[in-house]
Amino acid sequence: MRRLLVARFMITALCLITAAAVAPAHGDDEASHIVKLENRDFDGINFKGQTEFEIHDPDLLPKQLVRAIEQTGCRYKSELKSRPVRFLAIQRRRFAIVPCFAMVGRTQMFDLADLRRPQLQLFAIAALDRGFITAPEPGVIGWNSEKNVFEVEIRSDLCGDPASRYIYRLSQYDSGPSLVRIDVRKDGCRQDDGWATIWEAPAWPKREDLR
After folding, report:
1. Is 138:154 a contact under the CB 8 Å cutoff?
2. What span, in angstroms and rounded, lies between the C-alpha atoms of 162 and 96?
3. Comparing C-alpha atoms, which of 128, 131, 132, 90 is closest to residue 112?
């Protein structure tokens, strides 16, 4: 019985340690992720072994990221306390997802591979009767860590209007996320409707098929 209690305690402790390692940082701990460098034109970013963390205070953001955001015209300060900038560590890559104030959700994503020069990512989206285009603010960008995909939702601020969801995969060899699927929901407000797939990327032909 005693061994069982000890085993349960150890499992619980391990779960808490794991959760702390992957959970977003909040409160005073946010400042510890950003290393302010007064004599440099960029700041350091320390994930501290975490897969993600959030910044709610615009004054804490790295100066190089602020420059990159402001060049796009994104109004990121308006709702930062409720919609923070989210920093992600995915395999060996680093990203920052930035909310932009709008009537409907809009976000941008920056690749932090070059720490001094964050690169705005463009996402492929469907254009009516025109195939595909790329957009810097495709919708609400989220990372699904269980499926290892980015999910971008585009919806209206009115119930009854349809919503769409774009699924992107990330490869270490790609410059950015690759579109692999498009889902739609008839009513963006009704969660019980579920998503219906309307497009899925076909498999590329093999090299021998092209000969």
Report:
1. yes
2. 28
3. 90
Instruction: List the structure tokens of 45.
Output: 């970013």
Give the pLDDT of the chain (211 residues) as one tens digit per residue: 444 443 444 434 444 334 444 445 555 589 999 999 988 999 999 999 999 999 999 999 999 999 999 999 999 988 888 899 999 999 889 999 999 987 567 899 999 999 999 999 999 999 977 889 999 999 999 999 999 999 999 987 778 788 999 999 998 777 889 999 999 998 877 777 789 999 999 988 887 877 7
Residue for token digits 């008839």? 186
What's the one-letter identity of residue 65? L
Residue 131 zone, left/alpha/beta (φ > 0; ψ -120 to 50; rest): left
